[in-house]
């Protein structure tokens, strides 16, 4: 069987030539790439069901792709492992996990190595944008710092971000792709001798004796820092809906990991829930990975993400259903279709508005929660801790880098015993700006004239982004009041160089050139989905900012910018539409057509799972709440929701939601008790051989 | 608006819940006052779930025999599945001294009519396959001991308490008593003042503080213990395994596989760590896993899922303190369970109820000798 679900071409990412190896899945020989995870190898071979749950026999597959849950567990060479965190190896015997695993009868005695203890001034948990930015500041001041990250490369989620970043060029590398920012930060870190990096290293707990347990490359170690920076990021929220335990429902982080890191295609037809930046960008990444995006549903009347992102997706041909929610996921083992419905003003589904779409995967991108446990543990232990990035507050990576930098400077100053505040006041202002949510949407401010050449800025919403203003060689683009968040306006003398097109993270600038033909000017559209190839002569449906069709026109020129992984596509169009054109459609309309009759499950909302680990339904929890049991710890005691391998990482938020729905005031909800360990670890990792 | 109660039970834990249930079932009006948000949230939920009758003295043996009877039949008689397993207890001996101690004690236990036998190393490794056999002299095995979920048991008792009309006040702290002529006339909390004919001190780790409010000096001193639980796997061994040897940093440790298939484990720090601290330490897993894997290498790949820390409310001799003291003659103390509150609880709840009802039997009186508040506390439980 061929590993046909691999991404062979990608507009942005290089496809490395990795050695091919073979492994066995339930007795069947399959091809894998050396070094990839078992999960990705299985997905590459079209396998989406990895086993069946021991409680209810329902199918399990990839869920977090981040080592946090255990939904993707398989048996590899006799041992139950998380397939998303375990590398496949030559001739590995991999079997689906059906029910509970059998512990192998290995009875020879063990010898125990001494438990290593490492002292450092600063322990940074998480080598993403915030952690690396902080480490760079600490490195500059020669402060002993240890950065640990549970992945095999630095950069955190930057390594998944194939798109160009927002923000400003000076403070957050705006206009540069996330993957490249990650590489740049990692390269800079390497130049500081006081900074140590541990990859494949997971912090498991900050213990009361001010020591941090870390599993490094499978070896348990104790780190004793003077201070900690929690830069561990965030975790995705999940949703309650019937069918939410089917294989093929997961978060954007998992999706981007599979697609952009591992270059496997876990789906042919994707539906996205959530119109924040995460969901919108995931939609864009899907198109670049050659995955059909059937649609995107957002509960609010407008998408919460940047308008340039949603505009772009719509123009490509992905319908965005605002004021819509998921009613249910349909299928036996895996997702076969999704049913959505329109929401009324009270966020209740409107009968008769149900639409069903066939899809094999549903991506849940409904927000993030800071990963706060290390902070809480350190505080309980009396060990000084700061947080930066998403672990502090959910915002864009541009903001994470900047507040990471602030945290680094602050920690250095404290450790050096400096009295005065080391952070300039304007840094805090900048930090606030970078994390600002989208503001109001303006009207176009396009020149009246129909001569010469100039850019059309299809960027009408206030967002913290300004690289177009800094890249223009004639200094012809400014934000209205000079601030980072104001909308950019063109005033000046464009020379048609196209630099603003290439740097704009929103791909929201076109160029209109009347110089050769005033009646039929040439428009330039920036394009980075080259897996949908374009060539001169192709007819494309052009559309405006809101994806309204403006007619079909032929491509007159395609310019390649290989360094930027970008093309500029040119059309000659009548002057009447020239300024309106914002992009062209690439995904066929048939892809997103609903079924003629919606699939309405007989299942009720109470059949939704709140705890995937222990298969606890909303109905079970609701029944307890209605009996007066509102302490999450008691709910956990009775139902086991939260006692599974993930340690209530997913269900806590869902149970809180149920409590709210049942009218329990938030302040009366006692928090669920969090205990070690952050991830499950074999007993053999812990013994201290040197203990007398 | 404060109701008059027959009995106020202080503490909704391993002892308080069964006591409240039995009192209410006997027709009394009961109020339970608990500092936590909900029942069983103190040390009850920290219990690893083992229940044995194979102690060394009449009192504990009889209370626990009754506990086993109640818990074993719980799902049939009370309805809820509490995860009961009659998986037995075992004390393997790795040296002749321990073997002799255990065999001597077995004679006492057999004398009390307990079902306990000596297994040779081969017989033992049949029920604990893969157990380290070098130096193994054999093991006791008491097949009628068992285990269940302390979480489910306390939740079930809570449900039945409510059915029987017990009132519960959570997140409420006892601040004092009004005492007239050696009788508590009022129970005072941070939220109200209550009257009752009798008061039960089932405050676990806080029993001494509650006693002090009634002018008692109950020698109950909490000690910290840590425990852990693994992922579930198919059943692969039978009984609770208790290694009673002393090693640096610990005096004994024990583990078993519960009804979910998870291995639950615990170690007794030596010297003891007194006080109340529920925060986990970095020392527990390296120490406990080393000891476990030394005698049971098969556990190596089993993944630790969670660890926690709770307290054993210890008394100087390792026996509970149950009964009334002169300074407060309507205060029934049921305290100092020494880490066995969960296994003693169901039987103890009935016993305390009979004390409250002044209907103790001759056997109860014999049992209570072991737990007498006025004893000298000079003895030592064989396996506390």
Structure description:
The complex is a heterodimer of chains A (692) and B (384). In chain A, the strands form eight sheets. In chain A, strands 1, 2, 3, 4, 5, 6 and 7 form a seven-stranded mixed sheet that branches. In chain A, strands 8, 9, 10, 11, 12, 13 and 24 form a seven-stranded mixed sheet that branches. Chain A is α/β, with parallel strands linked by helices and 692 residues long. Chain A has 16 helices and 36 strands. Chain A has four domains: 20-102 and 238-364, FAD/NAD(P)-binding domain, CATH 3.50.50; 117-234 and 370-434, FAD/NAD(P)-binding domain (3-Layer(bba) Sandwich); 453-592, no CATH class; 605-668, Arc Repressor Mutant, subunit A (Orthogonal Bundle). Chain A is globular. Helix content of chain A is 21%, strand content 25%. The model of chain A has no long low-confidence stretch (mean pLDDT 95). In chain A, α6 (277-288) links the parallel β16 (269-273) and β17. By secondary structure, chain B is of the alpha/beta class. Chain B has two domains: 4-66 and 150-219 and 317-370, FAD/NAD(P)-binding domain; 86-144 and 222-314, 2-Layer Sandwich (D-Amino Acid Oxidase, Chain A, domain 2). Helix content of chain B is 29%, strand content 29%. Chain B has ten helices and 18 strands. Chain B has helices spanning 16-25, 58-72, 74-77, 96-111, 121-127, 150-163, 207-213, 284-295, 341-356, 362-370, and strands spanning 4-10, 30-33, 50-51, 89-93, 117-119, 138-142, 146-147, 167-169, 174-180, 183-189, 193-201, 221-232, 240-243, 250-257, 262-269, 303-314, 321-325, 328-335. In chain B, the strands form three sheets. In chain B, strands 1, 2, 8, 9, 10, 11, 17 and 18 form an eight-stranded mixed sheet that branches. The radius of gyration of chain B is 20 Å and the shape is globular. β36 of chain A pairs antiparallel with β16 of chain B.
